[in-house]
Design goal:
- The structure holds 2 protein chains of 2 kinds.
- Chain A is an alpha/beta fold.
- Chain A has a single domain, classed as P-loop containing nucleotide triphosphate hydrolases (Rossmann fold, 3-Layer(aba) Sandwich), CATH 3.40.50.300.
- Chain A is built from 6 helices and 10 strands, in the order βββαββαβαααβαβββ.
- In chain A, the strands form 2 sheets. A 6-stranded mixed sheet of chain A has the order 6-7-8-3-9-10, sandwiched between helices. Chain A has a 4-stranded antiparallel sheet with strand order 2-1-4-5, with helices on one face.
- Chain B has 9 helices and no strands.
- In chain B, helix 2 runs antiparallel to helix 3, helix 2 runs parallel beside helix 6 and helix 6 packs across helix 9.
- The radius of gyration of chain B is 18 Å and the shape is elongated.
- At the A-B interface, helix 2 and helix 3 of A face helix 1, helix 4 and helix 5 of B.
């Protein structure tokens, strides 16, 4: 890869405009995200939070503007960019007919290969000890969410893009996930998330992006 | 990359075997449709041998149409398709793995059952052999072309009808050359021309269909 801009180390969003059905969601949105930071995207329902995350993950295209990661244009270097991100959307990508382990093994084959022992360790960490061999259609919504969290941890991606990650998690689950996020950020990871809950993490730089205005504050 | 390819095949086969109806439904449909014709038209040997190749092939086309919902629909519904799009491996390779699985669970059983149905239709031994060869060359084409159509309609709630309109016209060359080959071999004529065409069409589809399918998936998921 040829460096286009070697100064940038994180995610850089440039003049992004998004429309949905002829309605403009946000206009010329620009911001940057550096390693060790959390960006919490705020906004009312229908202001384009999910659309923004889908554009940043490369699943949708903006009307104009571009996204670059570590100085490289994400559209051009799609597979290199995909290697660096973990995306958790409203749909978790979990097969109900497979067990938790089989699901994660399948996911790992799409991203980073991992051993069965690693998977078992992470499943224990996310509180699914004893549920490894259970089919996912027997798991609760919160437990499925935990399987998805295990996938994000195992992806070893630098940038996590999380769309409403705390949905259907219990209080302990939310606390645990916040701890996971903190660990990731402290290891110079980056997190982009939307949630209607308050995210208060010590020792982490959390910034906020308000949609649709695009205003940034800390 | 090969690891991702083979493990996706393994995972999808495992899913298919946990959902046996996905394998059995198209197969039952195929067998029943073919056996209805002798009852409906005439059980006479000469009539059946004449229309047999066409009927078996049309039934195979319809059976494969029935099964396309299993190709991307459940992956779309549960979000696996998004994860596939976000994989670092080329999407067309992953798509090819899914198409191969689709062929293994729908096309392959049809080939296995075809000698039985050929016998029901009073086809000669040579013709049954040709029927199997044309199915072997033709059913992968059906899976490959159908995948493009399915990728285009996967985001629509009721895409089934649209899928048939998109895909069935593209099946026509396969149908013509295959049933013609079986007919020719009944008449003792050479069938190499038809088989060469089918083989060329298959290679054309293997090369280009995964690319077209992945482009269609990206559009559908936007």
């Amino acid at each position: 890869m040829i460096a286009e801009n070697t100064n940038s180390t994180g995610l850089s969003v440039n003049q992004l405009t998004c429309e949905r059905g002829y309605r403009e969601l946000f206009n010329e949105l620009s911001f940057e995200l550096f390693p060790g930071e959390i960006l919490h995207i705020k906004g009312e329902n229908g202001t384009g939070k999910t659309s923004l995350l889908r554009i940043l993950a490369g699943l949708a295209l903006p009307v104009s503007g571009n996204v670059s990661f570590e100085g490289y244009d994400c559209g051009k270097y799609r597979s290199e960019y995909n290697e660096q991100i973990a995306f958790m959307g409203h749909k978790l990508g979990i097969k109900l007919e497979l067990t938790a382990i089989e699901n994660i093994q399948g996911y790992c084959q799409f991203s980073k290969p991992c051993t069965e022992q690693q998977i078992l360790d992470v499943l224990e960490k996310v509180g699914l000890y004893g549920f490894e061999e259970m089919y996912c259609n027997q798991l609760s919504a919160g437990q499925k969410r935990r399987v998805a969290i295990a996938q994000a941890i195992l992806s070893k991606a630098k940038l996590w893009i999380l769309d409403e990650p705390f949905t259907s998690l219990d209080v302990i689950g939310v606390d645990y996930f916040l701890q996971v996020i903190q660990e990731h950020v402290n290891n110079s990871g980056m997190v982009l998330l939307t949630t209607h809950q308050d995210v208060n993490l010590e020792n982490c730089t959390t910034r906020y992006l308000q949609l649709p205005s695009g205003e940034l504050f800390s | 990359m090969y690891n991702a390819f083979f493990s996706l095949i393994k995972r999808d086969l495992r899913l298919a075997f946990r959902h046996k109806s996905e394998i059995l439904n198209p197969l039952f449909f195929f067998v029943i449709v073919v056996t209805l014709f002798p009852l409906g038209i005439s059980p006479e040997k000469q009539t059946l041998a004449e229309i047999g190749p066409g009927i078996i092939w049309v039934a195979a086309l319809l059976a494969s149409m029935l099964s396309f919902d299993s190709l991307f629909r459940s992956d779309f519904d549960d979000g696996t398709l998004e994860l596939m799009l976000l994989s670092e491996y080329p999407l067309s390779i992953l798509v090819l793995a899914k198409i191969i699985v689709h062929w293994l669970i729908t096309g392959f059983p049809i080939i296995i059952f075809s000698p039985l149905l050929g016998t029901v239709m009073f086809l000669s031994n040579d013709a049954i052999e040709t029927l199997m060869i044309t199915l072997l060359l033709g059913t992968p084409i059906l899976s490959l072309i159908g995948a493009i159509g399915m990728a285009l309609v996967v985001a629509l709630k009721r895409g089934g009808m649209l899928l048939s309109l998109l895909v069935l016209p593209l099946y026509i060359p396969v149908l013509i050359f295959s049933s013609n080959a079986v007919g020719s071999s009944m008449a003792g004529l050479s069938i190499s021309g038809q088989l060469y065409f089918l083989a060329a069409f298959l290679i054309f589809c293997i090369t280009l269909a995964p690319i077209a399918t992945s482009a269609a998936l990206r559009v559908s998921l936007e």
